[in-house]
Specification:
Elements (H helix, E strand, L loop, with lengths): L1 E5 L4 H14 L2 E6 L18 E4 L5 H8 L4 E4 L6 H6 L2 H21 L2 E7 L22 H20 L3 E6 L2 E2 L8 H11 L3 E4 L5 E6 H14 L5 E4 L3 E4 H12 L6 E4 L14 H5 L8 H14 L1 H8 L2 H10 L6
Helix pairs in contact: 1-7, 4-5, 6-8, 6-10
The structure holds nicotinamide-adenine-dinucleotide and 2'deoxy-thymidine-5'-diphospho-alpha-D-glucose (DAU).
């Protein structure tokens, strides 16, 4: 396939690109704005085999340039951090909603297949049981509200224009190349540095952890085997609360458990996410990586790849960290 991958320099998008180039021999064009979260080095293993266009998905000219010669669009591009969306939602509305609209128009004009990468957060929080694809959308944060808006727009292009559009909703991803604003890489790097481990609220919020390569495979599966107009949930095999995750990271890094610090809770903090992935499993997808092994692999990757995270922790991330957590990162 010839695929335009939007947001392909980010954490999950780059895992998808590496996988598709290596295992499927796809011809890939990446369109990415290279925000603080987008990194060319995430693509260095496949750099000579792909075309890279730096540009924003909300820019129709950049999209027209990038999409030339492609059969399908897969959209990962988004502002993705819930805490940043609470501090300032504006950029989330532009990228996640307006940008999705520009991509849908490009797909409609050219008759392309379109896959929107979405999230379990559109369903909101669930105390017991799991969300199916027909659960109502009840987003809590500005981030998840913009992702829900984008999903509704994607569905409308299927119903109104007959666009071959699909949606794949993933649960919490973790693995190599994740920007350290998110729970797992933040805790790993702080633990390795002997820095405080800031746990929100009581630390008992539960997430449904999915190794990034499993999500990348699930998206590829939905793209090839899914039916237009359908939504496919792609959830991890294991659920775990935040304190347990942090405890495991402390063990894997041999850090001091007294580094754990309970800090002010996130406003509107969803208590639990849980996805039923039966529909995608009926198409033949299965998560391959359990959380125990996946977390150990992830800790090992961060130990061995300071070249990747060192420049991040010494740049604008430090300012973000100080603003958000009210204390400086340990040098
Ligand atoms: P990320 O923040 O690591 O990467 C986002 C990428 O999008 C970056 O490369 C960034 O430069 C690019 N980007 C941002 N704004 C852009 C714009 N206007 N135009 C073009 N490129 C732009 O994100 P991620 O964690 O890899 O998430 C990828 C997608 O998967 C997102 O749509 C997210 O909502 C979804 N998702 C994430 C998770 C998760 O746990 N991380 C789970 C389920 C779904
Ligand atoms: O569920 C899928 C979503 O997972 C994606 O759509 C989002 O793009 C992605 O950011 C992620 O959202 P979360 O808010 O669940 O992930 P985050 O890593 O920010 O937080 C995970 C949990 O850890 C959550 O309960 C908040 C808590 N947390 C997070 C941070 C950054 C802490 O306790 N301390 C922290 O410092």
């Amino acid at each position: 396939m010839r695929v335009l991958v939007c947001g392909g320099a980010g954490f999950i998008g780059s895992a998808f690109v590496r996988l598709r180039v290596r295992e499927q021999g796809d011809q890939i064009t990446v369109l990415d704005k290279l925000t603080y979260a987008g990194r060319r080095e995430n693509l260095q293993e496949v750099e000579s085999e792909i075309r890279f266009v730096q540009g924003a998905i909300e820019d129709p000219l950049a999209v027209a340039d990038a999409v030339a010669g492609c059969d399908a669009i897969v959209n990962f591009a988004a502002e993705t951090h819930v805490d940043r969306s609470i501090a300032d939602p504006q950029g989330f509305i532009v990228t996640n909603m307006q940008g999705t609209h520009v991509l849908l128009e490009a797909a409609r004009e050219r008759g392309l297949r379109y896959l929107q990468v979405s999230t379990d957060e559109v369903y909101g929080s669930i105390e017991q049981g799991s969300f199916s694809e027909s659960s109502p959308l009840e987003p809590s944060s500005p981030y998840s509200a913009t992702k829900s808006g984008a999903d509704l727009l994607v569905s409308s292009y299927f119903h109104t224009y007959g666009l071959e559009a699909l949606i794949c909703r993933g649960s919490n991803n973790y693995g190599p190349h994740q920007y350290p604003e998110k729970l797992i890489p933040l805790m790993i790097l702080n633990a390795l540095a002997g820095d405080r481990l800031p746990v929100y609220g009581d630390g008992r919020n539960v997430r449904n952890w999915l190794f990034v390569e499993d999500f990348a495979r699930g998206i590829g599966h939905a793209l090839l085997h899914g039916a237009p107009g359908e939504v496919y949930n792609c959830g991890g095999p294991d659920e775990c609360d935040n304190l347990t995750v942090v405890g495991r990271i402390i063990e894997l890094t041999a850090a001091d458990p007294r580094l754990v610090e309970f800090v002010t809770d996130r406003p509107g903090h969803d208590r639990r996410y849980s996805l039923s992935s039966e529909k995608l499993q009926r198409l033949g997808w299965r998560a391959q990586e359990g959380f125990e092994e996946g977390l150990a692999r992830t800790v090992q990757w961060y130990r061995e790849n300071e070249w990747w995270w060192g420049p991040i922790r010494s740049g604008a991330y430090r300012e973000y960290y100080e603003r958000h957590y009210g204390r400086a990162l340990k040098a």
